[in-house]
Amino acid sequence: MNTALTQPGAPMKVRGIQKRFGAFTALDNVSLDVAAGELVCLLGPSGCGKTTLLRCIAGLERQDSGELYLGDRDVSLLPPQARDYGILFQSYALFPNLTVEANIGYGLTGSGRDEVRQRVGQMLELVGLVGSEKKYPGQLSGGQQQRVALARALAPAPSLLLLDEPMSALDARVREHLCTELRQLQRRLGITTLMVTHNQDEAMLMADRIAVMNNGKVEQYATPQEIYDRPATPFVAEFVGQGNWLPFSRNSASHAQVGGMNMRLADDAGMAKSGRLFCRPEAISVNPPVHEENLFPAKVREITFLGNRCRMSFELEQLPGHPLLAELAPEAMPRLGAQHIWVALPPRSLQVFA
Amino acid sequence: MFKPLALVAAVLTAFSVNAFAAKTELTVYTALEAEQLKTYKKAFEQANPDVEIKWVRDSTGIITAKLLAEKDRPQADAVWGLAASSLAILDQQGMLDNYAPKDLDKIGKNYRDAANPPAWVGMDVWAATICFNTVEAEKQGLTKPVSWQDLTKPEYKGKIVMPNPASSGTGFLDVSAWLQTFGDKQGWQYMDDLHQNIGQYVHSGSKPCKLAASGEFPIGISFEYPAVQLKRQGAPLDIILPKEGLGWDIEATAVIKGTAHKDAAQKLADFSASPAAMELYKDNFAVLAQPGIAKPQTELPADYEQRLIKNDFAWASKNRDSILTEWRKRYDGKSEKVAGQ
Amino acid sequence: MTLPRQVSRAETGDRVFVVGGKLLWLLLLGIAVLMPLLAIFWRGFSSEAGQGGGLVAARELVTSANFHWLLGNSLKVSLSVAAIVVPLAYLFAYALQRTLIPGKAIWRGMSLLPLMAPSMLPGIALVYLFGNQGMLRGLLSENIYGFWGIVLGEVIYTFPHALMILLSALSLADARLFDAASSMGASPARAFRSITWPATRQAVFAAFCLVFTLTITDFGVPVVVGGDYQVLALEAYKAVVGQQQFGRGALIGMVLLLPALFSFGVDAWLRRRHGDSMSGRAQVFQPVPSALRDACYLTIVLLICAVLLLVFGMAVYSSLVKFWPYNLSLSLNHYQFEDTAGGGWLAYRNSLTLALCTALIGSVLIFTGAYLMEKTKGQKGLNLALRMLSFVPMAVPGLVLGLGYVFFFNLNGNPLHVFYGTMTLLVVCTIAHYLTTAQMTATTALRQLDAEFEAAALSLKAPLYRHYLKVTVPICLPALLDIVRYLFVSAMTTVSAAIFLYSPDTILAAVAVLNMDDAGNVGGAAAMSTLILFTSAGVSLLLAWASRGALRRSQAWRQTAPGQ
Predict the structure, then answer these.
(1) Full domain range(s) for residue C133
(2) What residues of C are in contact with residue A82 (Cβ under 8 Å)?
(3) Partners of residue A92 in chain C, C-beta under 8 Å
(4) Is B56 on the interface with C (CB under 8 A)?
(5) Measured between alpha carbons, how far is C423 from C421 in angstroms, rounded to an integer?
(6) In chain B, how many domains are there?
(7) Which residue of A has its CA nearest to C477?
(8) Where does the UniProt annotation place the signal sequence (chain B) (predicted)?
(9) How many domains are there within chain C?
(10) Closest Cα in chain A, distance from residue C203 (Å)
(11) Which of the two ends of chain B, N or C, has the fewest CB atoms closer than 10 A to its terminal CB?
């Protein structure tokens, strides 16, 4: 048995996976590359196909067509036991009649008793549950159960780790803490990981890259930064983070007409003749001290205090009926006083969608 | 260390040698009353020590059905004690091996199959009898019936039990007798009237008498063997032989065609017809297939045999199906009782 | 690296276990269930003269007024029985699982009484209680013989069957759901409607269907206490036995198959809507103390148990009475079985053998079969065929199944003929006959397990058969032991199939009971039934005691830790 904590992670390739359930297309020609040691999140609303994709990779579902590669092995048609991965289910699926020790050691066949015990001890140390060997899952808290399930999945030193909504059963406070822990663990082990979640905060926190899925397709596959700053489709833009939508029609190569305003666009703003502009709230400057481009009058509607920042809902004077959001530092609030303000929408922050 | 082993081996060999001492096992199907089986078997095996009887006992209907179900692969070697009316059906199906037992000439002509050699040979006769519970009769103020017609009196409503002719040989012999005695039209009329008084139809021939003995129903239409036995055990029964005459059937013996143990089966047939066997039957039945031996039971009148009606077995056998169909149509399963049909 | 070798061994092991196991199960079911059934159809539709079969006869049968009357009677009886039994069983099960009444083990034990004796026994007891010479005759205005006799007898006979299903469903509850409900201000009634009822709804329908089918296909009770109230099962018996019309019997048997098809449909439909499973995170439910609730339920339980005790006590008493009703002195002469056909004691010994073999072999086969069908994917057609086949025995009256066996195993040229009349065939027939309830218990228990257990095991490269033995069986041990007990006791009390399959060597105790009652020896019948009763009860207690230690060990993980 391998005494190293885990295998070096293997890269994973998904090629053209197609899966239908009756008339419903769950996965529509999905392709993905995961580098060795990377943590990739499959993010999307329910029904988008992320769990189906995970299960196809695990061999728990059979894809209609397409290939899967783990390392240099073609695992497309292999049964689950022949692939080489560990999986953490939403419900953890811990065996209630086995102790923590027995659960973790479940996949360690073909090794002597001492080796198994040693390995189990290693895993418990890894997840911080030393001393719980003889307990039963029913006696542990949710977070502890998750860690046991993780330890069990990792014990046979697989080259791929699959996580199916691992945090959904935990409360928010514990969640963030565990996200960080999990991420650190994953980095330390260097194990290729694929995680399914519908929670964008988790994805942003943990992932090296995020695949945003919708209706069986991958809409964008990029780093969190890119996804946030340069969403590839309106869906991605809306799904991750907050955003403002401004309907426009093209005036010229560099300018767009938004309501009664002529806004300057960035140089690489594409050629769309009309559509919507997308702008993040935090990119908008309110009452900027110096003159900025795209400076327009606006009317404050409501300010919400969020602790470390404020959210302001406002309307551009020349674009009535379109409530927009901006973010302010709390210090900026008293300065507002008046209802009428000036807002600047930097060209750089305006993304064009047809 | 080997001594105990050798001992065990020797004992085992002794046993197996014994087993191989060629005792033929004969599978005998029968509808004889359960209490009679032990005695008959013992007597036969004493006379034929190389044959061992394995009984398969059930009521007439079930045994007949079993035999027919196994037509293609008979399990029985012989039949000892089944209604002749059933054996006639088996004969029609070609399942019997005609054989003339040694003492055939002593058997009365009416009490054996007409063919030569006969397909079946009778043992004894069993006839209809009314079991009447005197204690219950007194409690419920019932008068004692003396004829079949009496049973249709309204005071007996719900108080009579009789066997269902579809399942019981005794029941069938009753119906056959009434139809022969009263004629077709009046026979059915009689049964219509009787039906109003029937509390229950049961499946076995002896049960009505046992129910009468326990007072569950005061009047049971049954046959003489259980009546005599129960009375001897102290049941408060009066044994009534109705005026018009008693229906009856013959218990008979036959060899099954295709049996692997033909010799042993024929030995059985021989024994069944022999005087020794007749002595056995004498204890249980008043009328035997071999005339002249019978001694009437103390509980039954001396002229018992004369009370039997003239029975046309050929007619009964031929019409069995249609009689039963008609009977079932009228009494078995309609909620409305069809009167005067 | 050892990885590739491990993988292929686990894989082949699993393929043998899953596919091989399913194929073997299919073969066994095919021979034990399907072939005899086909033999019945063949007999029913063959127009052999005098048999009452064939299409013309079938049409005649179905349109006759007699048939409608029989069908009406059977339906009336079965619906009444189901409508009475299922609510009673639900209340009883609820009392045992969700309240804190004392003495639960005693009530549970008593509820099993009707299982321990042939179905004739309640009938016999009812006659002694309410018959014309019955002890409590005055209580009843009408004759016990007839509709109410059958209904009462069947209610008692089918009660434990319904109870078993409902107990299994009500036993697994997640405490967190109830905590959630009460914290939202839901009354106990509301919690019941929104949590308990949906979780047990499927089991209620299953129980209803089972009781209905058991009743409509039973002939033990109607034979003893039905009087002239005819039902279809009895009609099949009479068609075959009284009139030698196998075709007709087979036709009626085919009619009696309809409830099974219906049950299967309902079960399949409900299956699609089924969601919940017990995950490793479920917390065991501890009922909240409530004196009023406990008092009410205790009363109900006591009433039901009192009725059961009365009936069975009466049967035991009547077996000791010398000559009912004129000589009430006690004696054991009814127990002297030497004069009974086949030798009563031989019948008893045979029944013991049958019961042991059926229980041990049957439980292993059925539970493993249920596991393969429920928890493994990939052989959809095979699974469907297996599931359909496993439901068939429930609807086939034991009588018709027995007939089917006679027709099939007695065919000229059938190589399996060598089994006819042997104990082996009786074991196979009995397992087949009682397959469905045992399987439903197994399936109910298996469905409560997390659906992802197998996936987790596969991902850990653990072979499924090992998972089955290490995880599934220990968790489902209570259900498994219930199945062993059920099969043992059912085999002790079975009569309707065996009545056609026994040979002089293999006569059974329950058949002896029927023979004795048919012949009017009711005392002897009561005696043999009592013997069966005490044997079954004794063995059940023995089983319970022997398994208590094993259960205690595996129960450690079912308890919630303090201070959780």
Answers:
(1) 55-276+283-320
(2) 7, 11
(3) 279-281
(4) yes
(5) 7
(6) 2
(7) A97
(8) 1-21
(9) 2
(10) 24
(11) N
Give the residue from A347, A342, A349 showing the smallest Cα distance to A289: A342
B225 appears as a binding residue in the annotation = yes
Are residues B111 and B25 part of one domain?
A: yes
> How far C325 CA lies from chain B's nearest CA (Å)?
6
Considering the domain architecture, whether residues B323 and B186 belong to the same structural domain is answered as: yes
**What is the DSSP secondary structure assignment for residue C145, as one 8-state letter?**
T
Q: pLDDT by residue for chain C (564 residues), tens digit each?
A: 334 444 566 677 788 888 888 999 999 999 898 888 888 787 777 766 556 667 777 887 778 777 888 889 999 999 999 999 999 999 999 999 888 888 888 898 889 888 888 888 999 999 888 888 887 877 777 778 889 899 999 999 999 989 988 887 887 666 777 777 778 877 777 877 877 787 788 889 888 988 988 888 888 898 888 887 888 887 877 776 656 677 777 788 778 777 766 776 777 677 666 654 544 556 667 777 888 888 999 999 999 999 999 999 999 998 888 887 887 888 888 888 776 554 578 888 999 999 999 999 999 999 999 999 888 877 788 888 888 888 778 767 676 787 788 778 766 567 877 777 789 999 999 999 889 888 988 998 898 888 889 899 988 888 888 899 989 998 888 888 888 988 998 899 887 788 777 776 788 888 888 878 877 788 888 999 999 999 998 988 888 777 777 667 766 676 543 333
Q: What is the DSSP string of C78-141?
A: HHHHHHHHHHHHHHHHHHHHHS--S-HHHHHHHHTGGGGS-THHHHHHHHHHHSTT-TTGGG-S
pTM greater than 0.80 (yes/no): no
Residue B15 inside a domain? The answer is: no
Judgement on whether residues C265 and C340 belong to the same structural domain of the protein: no
Q: B69 and C227 in contact by Cβ < 8 A?
A: no
* Residue C491: CATH number of its domain: 1.10.3720.10
What is the dihedral angle through the alpha carbons of C440, C443, C447, C448, rounded to the nearest 10 degrees?
70
C271 and C336 fall within a common domain: no
Q: How far apart are CA B269 and CA A34, in angstroms?
A: 91
Shared-domain flag, residues C439 and C544: yes
Interface test with chain C among B86, B167, B170, B327, by most C beta carbons within 10 Å: B167
Q: Which of residues 145-204 of C touch B (CB under 8 A)?
A: 145
Same domain assignment for residues C448 and C375: yes
Minimal CA separation from C4 to chain A, in Å: 8
| B10 belongs to a structural domain | no
In terms of DSSP bridges, do strands A24-34 and A39-43 run parallel, antiparallel, or are they unpaired?
unpaired
User: B92 and B120 share a domain?
Assistant: yes
For A89, the closest chain C residue by CA position comes to C452
Cβ neighbourhood burial of B125 (10 Å; 0-12, 13-18, 19+): buried
